[in-house]
Amino acid sequence: MGETRALTKRHRRSLSGRLAAVAVALCLTSATAALLPAPSTAATGRDGETVAEGRHTARISRTEYGIPHILARDFDGLGYGYGYAFAQDNVCELADQVVTLRGERSRFFGPGGESGEDPNLASDTYYKGQLRAGTVQRLLDRKAPLGPTSELRRMVEGYAAGYNRYLRDTGVDKLQDPRCKGKPWVRPVTALDLWSVVYDVNGATGAVPLAPDIGDAKPPAAGDKGTAASGPPGGKTAAPFVPGRQGPAAADFGSNGWALGRDTTRTGNAMVLANPHLPWVGGNFRFYQVQLTIPGTLDVSGAGLYGTPLVVIGHNRNLAWTHTASDAQHASFYALQLVPGDPTSYVVDGKAERMKRRTVPVTVRDKNGKLSTVDRTLYTSRFGSVLSFGWTTKTAYAVRDANADNLRSMNAWLAMDKAQNLGQLRTAQDTYQGIPWTYTLAADTSGGTYFTDSSVVPRLTDEQLKRCARPDNEEGPAALDGSTTACAWGTDPDALVPGIYGPSHQPKLSRTDYVANSNNGPQYTNPEAPLTGFPGVYDSDPRLGQRAQLGLGMIAKRADGTDGLGAPGFTQRTLRASMFGNRVLSAETGRDDVVGMCRAHPHLKTTDGKEADVRQACETLARWDTRADTNSRGAALWDTFFDHLLEAGGPDTWRRVPYDPAEPLTTPRGIKGDDIRAQRALADAVQDFAARDLPADTELGAVQKWAGIPLPGCNGNKGCFNVLDAGPDSGSGTPTAGAFGTSFLMAVELTPDGPRTHTLLTYGQSANPASPHYTDQTRLFSRKQWVTERFTKSEIASDPALRVTTLRS
What we know:
809 residues, 9-stranded mixed β-sheet
């Protein structure tokens, strides 16, 4: 899961409120049977909030910043309380997700799009096809471990019932969120809808980002001489695409994750830093913070993705873990050799095979509100769904997704939520083999740490990758040869399902000092013990990005006490300070080079041949502290300069010190002042600032905001650990309202007396702009402040902001 996120929470209460909390605490320490009211008991919470009705029973205790702590006797009730609490904060987000997953965006919003692309129509075609094929239902019909466990089924049923309960009690016309208040597309959800959310999340690095290309795929018209109907990913399509890689790459996913063992911390207690980087807008990959408790069975705190019923990054009393986006390939493009004269048939091992066709009806609303039905056709091959780009009379492209049969992820995460040590976490992942596309970094109270890529990865050997590779071209992406079964996925003996690698081939590392990842491949998880010998499909590029280099350097300097934060070894305080140091590695190694360049050349030519006076910009950079704090003057200019430098393209020969495999942690670095690309990049940056009427020394927080709140950090390609990419209007509802980066932050120390945790959900618990929890934690993020987690019964009960709701159905 990706990179970082910030939380903001606020509430104030009086002394009388504190005394009332003590009474709640006494209730919470009673026997399990007395934890929740019996079905006939009235359920009244603090401040008079009462929700009563029988089969589901749950207590929602909300602490500061609106964080819900769900307490229930069983999984039915736990899901019920979770679904209700989530709906209180984000009813619109899940409603909107369900419209997409049911293939109904065109019905309610029209085919949409620009330039006649009709993205809603293409999306609906894909999702209607999934429903008509019964894809998710077929997976639900399987028994565990392939299908969901009975506990999960009950929890998901409860979640749907809890969400629907809130919707029914409140009424669509009285919802607090103006974005969906009174809208006809806000409807009750089903368990199938929620499992479809899970399935969609699992396919995020495979078929899902290619949904428009699958939905729009059609053979070339009769008489076509071989020209592709559309080009490769990167043009019309939103599909993630990396030249030379035979499969989609994760788009808009990243993360930093550290698991620090007893040899690296000053206390000898293990610690975990979670810093996923994901989009701030859109329900699919936003986090929701929660604690889930069934006495004697489950007690886990952390964050889950919208619409999913579990904690996916978090901790319990003895174990903590996080995820970062895996560099492995989780899907494969296949180039299909078409039968001459028949663009819907392809050749495999010399024999022709016809593509399968599925016609799906899509309801479309026109500009006048009139509904009509359009029949659309989907094409599939033995190598997966056929794509719109690159389909000529000679070649078509298909995508095979390793997560196409995966609902097992929820089984794995529930088992991880219950696990009490690293051995049990490993067993959970090996048993279900369902972690879809992330690395796992974990630690437990023994002081040990563990790293693994247990994600679902196609079984392709290094020999196959070499022999079967087809290079990218003007018509299509890099792909594998689909004309022979010798290029198809194999199967490991210990794999739970065909076509993937089993646990015996997965990269793994156990240490007592640390394991770390910033979306680099597995090799340098710990440079003292490089991971090698795993299949190449797990690591497409062994080179370290600047963010990964910075993260490993931060750990090394903290371990020996040379980072200016005090005596060697991590503490809770120095862990949090390291996270918010807001260092920019590209500036630390290249700023002085650029200052030397612009002092020697005070007037430089822009890319379009104009002359730019760079003297003021030069002195701004010279005075800059090379940090990406909100009040840093020079960070915004450097960000713009470096973007232009990267956009210049070509090999990075503008580096003063080129990449050296013998020095992977420190190369490449620096910037050649005499390189024309560097000179033009600075001139272009100055020209950009002038066009926007911005002084060269504009503070970073003036141009990087969320709902008007200044944000620290910068894009990871500049070597920022605290990743943040946002504009001046982010969070305002304008067309440029998006943001990406640090999302859920967790710094946990596993002490003998229990976990000590600080968290931050950068965009808050609610996506509703009218909610007090829309920006409360964003303000904390702006000020580098954290939320002290309340995990125990007494900590929860002593919160002056506490509000308790008891639910029965």
